[in-house]
Amino acid sequence: MRNNIIWLVVIAMIWSCSPSDEELFEEGVKLLQNSQYQKAIEFFDRAIEKNPDNTSALNAKGVALFQQGKYDDAIAVFSASIELDPNSYKPFFNRGNAYLEKKEFREALLDYNMANGLDPQQVDVYYNRGLALLGLEEYEDAIFDLDVVIQAVPEHALAHFNKAKSQLGNNDPVGAVESLFATVNLDSRNGAAYYLLGVTQMSAFGQKEEGCANLKMALNLGFTEAKSWVDDFCSE
């Protein structure tokens, strides 16, 4: 009888030391932040096993899968999180990001619209939705979203850059050049921006000297697509 009591006490102690789903989730987040994605997934799975309604663990598992480039698996996990809690913008935003990586722009746009409706204050949603709209060649709507980002974060160089691409698609080279100058002023290492600036200056405005200077800068920064323009139009 005494041995049975001791054994029951030991079991109770082991049970009491078993980590909760929240503790497992928090450990998984630490691993996720340290780019240990597969190990993080193991902790998120343990948290979900303990509490299948832990949408935070589901969403975080989806993020870890996304970081590994497993976009279809991530989409499935984000969808499961949405089924449990359709009122959080995060899994909609994250699933939209996975669709964006797959260049499934229409599906991404639908998710970003849902995320924006649930939390219209999230600047990242506007930026990524702008990218999806750019991919869909819906240039005016893309410019609107990217302007929201720029108003909130004026130093967001990529927002200026993608706005420039949208403006070019919308047949506005004047606005595009202005946005490209803003881009390179904020990020002097963006070779693609120098390239686009040089090409636009030469093709839209006939500014050969200025255009060649920017094309050569793009080439110096490793943007090799500028080489053919430099060879064809900027040789001494």
TrEMBL record:
Protein name according to UniProt: Lipoprotein NlpI
Protein keywords: Lipoprotein, Repeat, TPR repeat
Source domain of life: Bacteria
InterPro entries according to UniProt: TPR-like_helical_dom_sf (IPR011990), TPR_rpt (IPR019734), Ycf3 (IPR050498)
TPR repeat extents: 21-54, 55-88, 89-122, 123-156
Keyword Isomerase among UniProt keywords: no
Keyword Repressor listed: no
Transmembrane segments: none
